[in-house]
Amino acid sequence: MKAKQMALAAAVVMFGGLPLHGDVIYLKSGNVLVVEKAWEEGDQVKYQSASGIQTIPLAAVKRLQGQKPVPADPSRSQPIQAVVIRGQGTPAPPPAVVKTAPKPLADNSRASARSTRYQDSAGYAEALREHEKTGKPVALYFYADWCKYCAQLERGILSRSEVKQYLETILYVCVNPEHGKAEAALFEKFGGRGYPTFLILAKNHAVQEMPTFVPPQVFLQECREAARGGNQ
Question: What angle do CA 199, 202, 208 make, to 5 degrees?
Fold first, then answer.
């Protein structure tokens, strides 16, 4: 519990340095929505984003906060997306559904932190078959190349020798939801709302999300316990 509180505190500090545009919805769950405009209507809170008007129960909202307008940036002509900021991750736009070729990674330390065998939806399907046969746990990592928090996770934790050695003993899958429709659907299936998202799937146990803003030793311990079916 202490490790997860440390993770949430670290995320709040980082959130404080992010440039916000539009209104902010603080949820009682600890999540934060950054939207174009938000308002109360009866027992609901409605908000405007690029995908239209969405609603959430008022009972789930801690408070609303309007942001001061900022000067227009002529280099950005797209409307504001609704963004979720979680205590253990970073905001991500809705996954792209148009398949694009992955961009080459100039940072070798990031590339070496990702799985070389199980990648994207095809890699997940292969790992799942192996999981059913052997019972080995699956580590499922959702990331984006542009995500700076993914870069921090990869450089600071996933590239550490002790973590890499552990991930080699289980079925480690890396999925970029921007690589295509199948990858985006997989992200949605697991309720993904932000990057990075790191999950452990242990046989006959519920899927568990791992904290990503913690020391490497804490991350490794959390993964091991989840793989054994702990932390339920």
Answer: 35
pTM strictly above 0.70: no
Q: Which two tokens stand for residue 60?
A: 């789930």
Cβ 160 vs Cβ 215: under 8 Å: no
- Contact between 20 and 51 (Cβ < 8 Å): no
DSSP 42: T
**What is the distance between the alpha carbons of residues 171 and 191, in angstroms, rounded to a whole number?**
20
> Cα–Cα distances in Å, from 120 out to 84, 127, 141, 160?
23, 11, 10, 22
Q: How many CB atoms lie within 10 A of CB 82?
A: 22
Is pLDDT above 90 for 22?
Answer: no
Confidence of residue 220 (pLDDT cuts 50, 70, 90): very high
Got the DSSP string for 143-188?
A: --TT-HHHHHHIIIIITSHHHHHHHTTSEEEEE-GGG-HHHHHHHH
Query: What pLDDT is attached to residue 18?
Result: 40
On the 0-12 / 13-18 / 19+ scale of CB atoms within 10 A, 102 is exposed
Best CATH choice for the domain 3-7+19-85 from the list 2.30.30, 3.90.1580, 1.10.8, 1.10.10? 2.30.30
Report residue 67's pLDDT band, with 50, 70 and 90 as the boundaries.
low
Domain 108-227 has CATH 3.40.30.10: yes
